[in-house]
Structure formats: C-alpha cells, structure tokens
C-alpha cells in the first residue's frame, strides 16, 4: 500500500529520506521567504526598533539556537502582524506565561 496514510495521518512517502535530498533545506527556504515578506512590511522599522531588537538572520527560525528568545521574537512579530492587520493586540512581555501568550495569539487568529 504505497502512499497510504500512516500513523498520525502522515503519508509514508513524507519521510525526509523519501522526499529527496533537498527536503532537509526546505525550512531554510521558507525562512528566507518569511524574512523577505517581513521586510516588505517594514518590520525592522515598525516592530524591531520599537522593541529595541536586532534584525533576524536568514536562518533565525530554521535553527534552534535559543528557544526562549526565538519564542519571544515569534510572539512579538505575531502581535505586530495582528495589530498591522487592524486588530488591537497587546504586545506580550518576555516573561509572560508562554501558554497564555500562544492561546491569545491563536484566539485572535481564529477570529479573523
């Protein structure tokens, strides 16, 4: 049963070895696309300067370097994007409960 759904709804052909040699680098391509889109939205001027943060590297979210810092950056960008979309959203603080922050972000996104 080639291509039949496996456990967890995953297709057996979705394993990294069966997707091809470039599959391991796909996350880097996605991160570069994300960074390009954020730059088009002027994230450096509007989001980073306001919070005194440094710009993202091309591989910031593709490599797990500092999960706490990466999570806070993700939440900061998510809050900024929600606000940019016209919804009021309180900027999360670095020491807020991560579960509460994610719950608030997901709740706001569901309401879109």
Summary tags:
Intraflagellar transport protein 57 homolog, 5 helices, cilium, single chain, 112 residues, Intra-flagellar_transport_57, disordered N terminus, cell projection, globular
Describe this structure in words.
The protein is mainly α and 112 residues long. 54% of the residues lie in helices and 0% in strands. The protein has helices at residues 16-19, 26-40, 43-51, 67-84, 98-111. The chain starts with 15 loop residues before the first helix and ends with a helix.
Quick overview of this protein structure:
This protein has helices at residues 16-19, 26-40, 43-51, 67-84, 98-111. It is mainly α and 112 residues long. The protein has one domain (23-111).
Beta-strand percent range: under 5%
Q: What summary fits the major beta sheet?
A: none
Runs in which pLDDT lies below 50 for 5 or more consecutive residues are: 1-12
Shape: globular
Tell me the distance between the termini: 40 Å
**What sequence of helices (H) and strands (E) makes up the elements?**
HHHHH
Backbone structural class: mainly alpha
> What is the number of E strands?
0
Mean pLDDT: 85
Q: Please count the helical segments.
A: 5
Q: What's the number of domains? A: 1
The percent range for helix content is 40-55%
Q: For the CA atoms, what is the radius of gyration?
A: 17 Å
């Amino acid at each position: 049963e080639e291509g039949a759904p496996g456990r967890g709804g995953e297709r057996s052909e979705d394993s990294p070895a069966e997707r091809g040699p470039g599959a391991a680098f796909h996350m880097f391509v996605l991160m570069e696309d994300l960074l390009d889109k954020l730059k088009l939205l002027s994230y450096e001027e509007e989001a980073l300067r306001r919070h005194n943060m440094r710009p993202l590297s091309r591989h910031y979210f593709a490599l797990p370097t500092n999960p706490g810092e990466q999570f806070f950056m993700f939440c900061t960008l998510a809050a900024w994007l929600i606000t940019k979309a016209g919804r009021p959203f309180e900027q999360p603080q670095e020491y807020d409960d991560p579960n509460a922050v994610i719950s608030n972000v997901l709740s706001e996104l569901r309401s879109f």
